[in-house]
Amino acid sequence: MTSANQRFKAKIDNKTYTFVGKSSVEHMKTVTELMNEQLNQLKELSPDIDKADAAILLAFNAFSEQVKLQNKINQLEKKDYKE
């Protein structure tokens, strides 16, 4: 049985967003904290970056990490399948 959707308010880069999903509050808090940390790092490295460009870089980095992790999972699954 899947859990019901729940609403979660997150303050990201001083703006409040409401997300709806099945993730736990703990998960959403962790994601929010990580996003804010990475946005702050981007701003420190590039103080003149605008919010749109920072969001694109943040998304690019997230998808890049997702692809790397999926490749690792695929390699491990192939290794387990051969054994």
Automatic annotation (TrEMBL):
<keyword id="KW-0131">Cell cycle</keyword>
<keyword id="KW-0132">Cell division</keyword>
<dbReference type="GO" id="GO:0051301">
    <property type="term" value="P:cell division"/>
</dbReference>
<dbReference type="InterPro" id="IPR007838">
    <property type="entry name" value="Cell_div_ZapA-like"/>
</dbReference>
<dbReference type="InterPro" id="IPR036192">
    <property type="entry name" value="Cell_div_ZapA-like_sf"/>
</dbReference>
<protein>
    <submittedName>
        <fullName>Cell division protein ZapA</fullName>
    </submittedName>
</protein>
<dbReference type="Pfam" id="PF05164">
    <property type="entry name" value="ZapA"/>
</dbReference>
<dbReference type="InterPro" id="IPR053712">
    <property type="entry name" value="Bac_CellDiv_Activator"/>
</dbReference>
